[in-house]
Specification:
Helix content: over 70%
Number of domains: 2
Shape: flat
Distance between the termini: 62 Å
Largest sheet: none
Length: 116
């Protein structure tokens, strides 16, 4: 069998790809473990049903919207639209700040309802 000599850059690219796959598999395993723990724990007698505060649902929409504005800002940069990129970046920052505020408000609601 013939050995192929890889260049330094090819070795680095190959290593990065392999590490990415290790990361993806690790995340899948962690998610599966946490899901399994949730399913098993939910069947216990001492399980407490918690209704999530409304702030968490709204913050999900806010963070998704901020992802969209960040994507559009990147497109504006690639199209050399400096003004559009600036406006979209500012909107993204405001949405990100709103997300953080809503997370604090949601956790504050959980603490006020004595879920801690």
């Amino acid at each position: 069998m013939e050995e192929i000599e890889l260049t330094h850059d090819e070795k680095i690219a190959r290593s990065k790809k392999q590490m990415m796959w290790f990361g993806i598999v690790s995340l899948i395993m962690m998610f599966a473990g946490l899901t399994s723990a949730y399913v098993v724990s939910r069947g216990r007698k001492d399980w407490v049903e918690i209704e999530l505060p409304e702030e968490f649902f709204w913050s999900t929409g806010v963070i998704l919207l901020s992802s969209l504005t960040l994507f559009l800002a990147k497109k504006a940069i690639l199209n050399s639209n400096k003004k559009g990129a600036t406006i979209l970046t500012i909107i993204t920052f405001i949405l990100g700040s709103t997300f953080v505020f809503m997370q604090f408000a949601g956790f504050d609601s959980l603490v006020n309802e004595k879920y801690f």
